[in-house]
Amino acid sequence: MSATPTHRAIAVMALVPTLVALALWAFAWPAARTAPRDLPIGVAGPASAVTQVEQRLEQRPDAFEVHRYTDEAAAREAIEDRVVYGAVVVTPEGPQLLTASAASPVVAGLLREAVTAQAPSGEPVKVTDVVAAPAGDPRGSGLASSILPLALAGVAAGVMVTVLGLRGSRAALALTGAAALVGLTAAALTHSWLGLLSGNWWAEAGVLGLTVLAIAGAVAGFAALLGTRGIAVGSLLMVLIGNPFSGAASAPELLPDPAGMIGQWLPPGAGAQLLRSVSYFGGNGAGGAVLTLSLWAALGLAAVLAGGRSAQPATASQESQRPVPAPVG
Hints:
The protein has eleven helices and five strands; from the N terminus they run H-E-H-E-H-E-E-H-E-H-H-H-H-H-H-H. It is of the alpha/beta class. It has a five-stranded mixed beta sheet, with helices on both faces. A hairpin with a 2-residue loop joins strand 3 (87-91) and strand 4. Helix 7 packs across helix 8. The protein starts with a helix and ends in an 8-residue tail after the last helix.
């Protein structure tokens, strides 16, 4: 029995506030609860002095995950490898803070405030930006803003493939080709024109394309498995959850639990982390994000291919059931 116009009107009135509430929760909740949660930070220097720094940092329970290093060189290496976001080095001249604004300008500022506030009264804190954000994007807002367009591009590709009726290998080829072209276009804009990225151009284009492919494959894969409802599932998951939970504007460790962890399991968050690693850190710390994006892309394309194969027998069966026209004469 089809729904009456009254029922459809009631459904619209109920659905729109529900979507608004979900969107406000997904976007406003992480932003309103931003704070360090087991944020990896290093300390280096003499054992007695390092212990004092650790004790001061531990005054904020569960805020920092402290890693000990023997000297400044080891701490710098850990920052460049993306093991920690920064490090406090105790020297005879006083404490020195090493940061990496390329990893997160928000975290760099937070560490500067925390270490300065905990330093003995009147003792200056020297701050060194070990891996600085590019001059074209010193606050990191440009890179963070690029994640939503990538998510929308992936959703658009998945929706178009489904609506246009592409199936199987044709759908997989269309998704892959669209993602590759988006990667090239996005690299030309973000690297060559805007100067938001500063790494290897082709590697960045590959990361951007892989991010779009993971999202597009997910949307098209859900549609192949669930029908048109799958488009809604994939779109909501990638845009409404994946984007605000990505931590691209701050850092996953600054989001409330479990938002930061969930965000890194989804393509927008993994794509943001991988783009930082490739563009600013020479690919260091990229393994987990590469695995996440590859799995989403592979599983999505596998679902698309499986959906195409399952549709072929149904089509053949329909053709066989068509009546054979009677001979004339």
